[in-house]
Task: inverse folding
């Protein structure tokens, strides 16, 4: 389930790179791609935390889940950073798209 969110975000990242290559950065499609990446990163972080909680509660008593839990913490942190960065980029790009559309209307 986690891999679905990851691959959707990866696909959207490639779409965003395609928009950049076509010089269509300041478009609503770019904003939508960033929004989808942000939501996928949030879902990814939540699902990884849920997996860590599941392993912590239901692991075998003789087993040590410290390595897996450390990986959960690191990947959750990375997904939070990605979600925050894409949220900032999304807001910046949305304001740029708004300014561009206003300039297109005045000309």
Result:
């Amino acid at each position: 389930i986690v891999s679905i969110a990851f691959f959707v975000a990866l696909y959207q990242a490639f779409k965003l790179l395609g928009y950049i290559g076509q010089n269509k950065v300041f478009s609503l499609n770019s904003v939508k791609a960033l929004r989808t990446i942000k939501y996928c990163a949030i879902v990814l972080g939540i699902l990884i935390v849920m997996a860590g909680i599941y392993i912590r509660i239901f692991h075998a008593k003789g087993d040590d889940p410290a390595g897996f839990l450390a990986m959960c913490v690191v990947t959750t942190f990375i997904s939070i950073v990605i979600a925050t960065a894409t949220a900032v980029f999304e807001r910046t790009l949305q304001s740029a798209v708004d300014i561009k559309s206003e300039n297109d209307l005045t000309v």
User: Anything to note?
Assistant: The helical segments are 2-21, 28-58, 66-106.
